[in-house]
Every structure is written in structure tokens, then in C-alpha cells.
Design brief:
By secondary structure, the chain is of the alpha/beta class. 35% of the residues lie in helices and 21% in strands. The protein contains ten helices and nine strands. The strands form two sheets. A seven-stranded mixed sheet has the order 5-4-3-6-7-9-8, sandwiched between helices. Strands 1-2 form a two-stranded antiparallel sheet. Helix 1 crosses helix 2, helix 1 runs parallel beside helix 3 and helix 5 packs across helix 6. The mean pLDDT is 91.
Length: 272
């Protein structure tokens, strides 16, 4: 069924319920629910879950990310729209063809979105959370990639060492003491392992940067998000690993991305 299939009164009822539940963009959310649901009973169930505080993306079963519908299962990290900025930077660096690894992949949104814009790609993704891995397989395999379950680099094929052109690492970077301050949609409905970055928020990042040189191709790039207050420490971690660091920001999206480049000329990882 489509939005037009449901009556105006039904649509108004959905909007009223969502608005009463505190949904700021009730009209937009109603349109998405009505366009996703197939029956009135499914609409009612989705509205009930949303009114109870479940993230809209978990209610719908998908999130829009760089023009793609990314499958998102319950308890899996929802890709943030600000992270589209990171993927855009990665696309510029990747050029026509690239070997891409998406670490801490969650739903696999970053890798799938980057792959969609490349002519040729080898795509690999990994996450420690089994629920995320199951979800990522729905998105990454469709993009022609492979998904592995395990801690950071541990599950990746050894044949990737020294061949990775673009290493996307959407690591958790919220300090442990601040996780409780996050909006309930994240704090309650997303896995803590996808949010908690340790005492200063950079524990996972330091492990990623330390291991990156073994996996990056000459001239390959590591890209990750961080907060403005963490930039100095994040850059230090990149440089300690032997990578050249630069910081790029998008004020409109409140996005700060650090790019670490492994010394060498050109990206030499892709094989036809």
C-alpha cells in the first residue's frame, strides 16, 4: 500500500498520535510510516512502537543514507546523516576503484554507500556485535561485499594486509561517563558497544590507528569521526601510528572527520 491508499483521516490520526508522543517531525514521520506499512494494522503497530520511543529507523526497518535505503535491525546502531560527510570525503579519495574496509560497521551503511559510488570495489566489513553483523550482511552483501564477525582487524582475511585503500572506522567515541547523557533513542535502543569509547572516548580509536599501518596500501587512507573536543588527542593517535593527519569539518552537519594517510604514492591496493 502507498500513502495515498490510506484515508486523510487515518493520516491525521497517525500525525496526532505521533505529535502527542513528542515526535517533533510528526508529519514527516507519518508519511514514512504510511509509505512503508502494507496494512492498517501494520501502521497501528508501527505507530505504537514509535510512540513508545523506538527510533524511527528501527520502526521502519530502514534508514536513508546517501540516497540508499539501509536495512536497520533493532539494537543496531542507526547511521547518522552527518556521517554522509565522511563517506563523501572517502569517495573523493577513493577515485574510480578501491579496496574498502568498513570497521565497526554496524549496519554496513558506510561501506555500502561508498561502494555504490565506485566503478570497481572490493568491500569488506567487520563488527564485534553479532546483531550488527547479521544486519550488515543484508546491506554489504547486496553491494558485493563480505562481512566478518570479530574484534576490529582480527576477523579480516590476511590477504588484505597492505592492500586497503580506504579504511572507514566509525568507532564509538562517547566517553563512558557520558553515555548516560545521550538521547534515549540511542542510550536505550542501540547497543552500548556501538557508543561507548572508554574513559575519554578514544580507546577503540587508538587500537584502530595502531593497527592501521599493517592493513593500509601505500597512500591509503583511514577516516573516522570524532568530536571537536577530541580532535587533538585523535590527531595525536593518528600521528603516533605513523600516519599523516588532517582534520576536515562540516559546520552545517556538526561533523568532524580525521583523515590519516599512510606514506607512499598512490593507492595501490585494488586488483582487477
Amino acid at each position: 500500500m502507498s500513502v495515498s491508499t490510506f484515508s486523510t483521516s487515518h493520516r491525521s490520526s497517525v500525525i496526532s498520535t505521533l505529535r502527542a508522543a513528542g515526535c517533533v517531525f510528526a508529519e514527516d514521520e507519518a508519511e514514512l510510516i504510511l509509505s512503508t506499512a502494507h496494512t492498517p494494522s501494520e501502521v497501528a503497530a508501527m505507530v505504537e512502537r514509535r510512540a513508545a520511543g523506538l527510533p524511527l529507523e528501527h520502526v521502519l526497518g530502514w534508514a536513508e543514507f546517501r540516497g540508499l535505503r539501509i536495512a536497520v535491525d533493532p539494537r543496531v546502531f542507526v547511521p547518522r546523516r552527518r556521517t554522509e560527510f565522511l563517506v563523501g570525503l572517502a569517495a573523493e579519495l577513493a577515485g574510480r576503484a578501491a579496496v574498502v574496509v568498513d570497521l565497526c560497521c554496524g549496519s554496513g551503511a558506510l561501506g555500502a554507500a561508498l561502494a555504490a559510488g565506485l566503478e570497481q570495489v572490493e568491500l569488506y566489513a567487520a563488527d564485534i556485535d553479532p546483531a550488527a553483523v547479521r544486519c550488515a550482511r543484508r546491506n554489504v552483501v547486496e553491494a558485493g561485499g563480505e562481512v566478518y564477525e570479530g574484534d576490529l582487524y582480527d576477523p579480516l582475511p590476511d590477504a588484505l594486509r597492505g592492500r586497503v585503500d580506504i579504511l572507514l572506522a566509525n568507532v564509538p567515541y562517547v566517553p563512558s561517563g557520558e553515555v548516560g547523557l545521550l538521547p534515549a533513542e540511542a542510550r536505550v535502543h542501540e547497543a552500548r558497544v556501538a557508543l561507548d569509547g572508554g574513559a575519554d572516548g578514544l580507546d577503540v580509536l587508538r587500537r584502530v590507528t595502531k593497527g592501521a599501518p599493517a592493513w593500509l596500501a601505500p597512500g591509503g587512507h583511514l577516516l573516522f569521526e570524532t568530536s571537536e573536543g577530541q580532535v587533538s588527542a585523535a590527531v595525536d593517535a593518528v600521528e603516533r601510528a605513523g600516519l599523516a593527519a588532517r582534520v576536515v569539518s562540516d559546520e552545517e552537519r556538526y561533523a568532524t572527520v580525521v583523515i590519516g594517510t599512510w606514506p607512499g604514492r598512490g593507492a595501490g591496493g585494488f586488483r582487477d
